[in-house]
Specification:
alpha+beta, binds 2-acetamido-2-deoxy-beta-D-glucopyranose, 4 helices, Immunoglobulin-like, 311 residues
Length: 311
């Protein structure tokens, strides 16, 4: 049997005793065990109590009580209790010095387990097995949570930005668990779903650093916000960056175009003025000439009239 390879002799004896006891009591009603139906959420680094209680009729003699907490998947021991004391010889090493029952509660039908200094690796299913005369077992789910740091949004590149440029906005939060939901929004609260890349890096404790990258085409006076939600804690972190005119350098191309246009306009105006002046002068001279001609004509006419009178 694969199981015998991983258990030491004392545990093996206990297990076979237990198995024969189980067979012996098969006819009797199973003991009722009560564990939380919903997953138990524990904060990383804190202690958690895995509740497990059992029904019993008579006052209990502790030396008759056997409690075994196991990892449901591997059946490996988290904590054992029998013959009136803890049995930890075959305990999985990472639980060493981190587990205890509540001895004062045990006689009252309470086989809850205190797990100290919870780590991400503790996440999973735990089975509580209790045997007095009857026996019973029940499994519960442990989930680990850690709050993320407040997100920080940075802009790349930071300066010499021009409208129409592509910029990368990075939102980083660290030390959290489990994976968070990242939502990018613009100033009007619209979801930005394009060009978002989110990456995860776990540290040696299994806690995540989440980095979300958003690529946008720059427009002046725009706001980009990053919201990170821890689904287990319902906790929300928020950060934003506003791109104002200050971030945006006056674009050289537009500058030269503006200067060029102004110069052209000035030259045009001067030329126009010169043309106008000449035109005005010409028209003035013409008017004078016309007036002189008209005078001459008048004189001619009066001469003619005089001649006519004389004749
Ligand atoms: C558990 O505690 C004992 C006694 O304090 C110590 O000798 C042992 O190294 C500890 N084990 C771990 C895994 O911390
Ligand atoms: C069992 O004991 C633990 C630790 O004192 C306590 O938190 C829990 O409520 C108890 N459970 C019951 C059903 O009394
Ligand atoms: C934006 O996305 C989040 C998460 O995907 C969603 O809960 C929310 O309803 C969305 N809002 C809009 C306005 O689409
Ligand atoms: C995503 O970014 C690339 C360049 O980085 C761009 O060519 C593409 O149009 C963008 N896609 C969307 C949907 O914005």
């Amino acid at each position: 049997m694969g199981l015998t390879c991983v258990v030491n002799p004392s545990w093996k004896t206990m297990l076979s005793l237990l198995l024969s006891a189980m067979l012996a009591v098969q006819a009797t009603a199973a003991m009722e065990l009560y564990v939380p139906e919903q997953p138990v959420v524990a904060l990383h680094g804190r202690d958690v109590t895995l509740n497990c209680s059992f029904s019993h009729a008579d006052p209990l003699n502790l030396s008759d009580v056997n409690v075994f907490w196991q990892l449901t998947d591997t059946k490996r021991s988290v904590h054992g209790y029998s013959k009136g004391r803890d049995q930890l010889a075959d305990q999985v090493e990472r639980f060493a010095n981190r587990t205890s029952l509540f001895p004062a509660q045990l006689g009252l039908g309470n086989a809850s387990l205190l797990l100290s200094r919870v780590v991400v690796a503790d996440e999973g299913s735990y089975t509580c097995f209790v045997m007095v005369k009857d026996y019973g077992s029940a499994a519960l789910q442990l989930q680990v949570a850690a709050p993320y740091s407040k997100p920080v949004v940075t802009l790349y590149p930071e300066s010499n930005l021009r409208p129409g440029d592509e910029v990368a906005l990075t939102c980083v939060a660290y030390g959290g668990y489990p994976v968070g939901d990242v939502v990018w929004q613009d100033g009007s609260g619209r979801n930005l779903t394009d060009n978002i890349t989110t990456s995860l890096v776990a540290n040696e404790q299994g806690l995540f650093t989440m980095t979300s990258l958003l690529t946008v085409t720059l427009e002046p006076n725009s706001t980009y916000s990053c919201r990170l939600i821890n689904p287990l804690l319902g906790e929300e972190g928020f950060a934003f960056v506003t791109i104002t005119g200050q971030n945006i350098a006056f674009p050289p191309v537009a500058l030269w175009v503006t200067v060029g246009l102004s110069v052209c306009l000035l030259v045009l105006l001067i030329a126009l003025a010169a043309v106008c002046r000449r035109k005005i002068k010409e028209s003035c001279e013409e008017a004078r000439r016309e007036a002189e001609e008209a005078k001459e004509l008048e004189e001619d006419e009066s001469k003619t009239a005089l001649t006519a009178l004389r004749s």
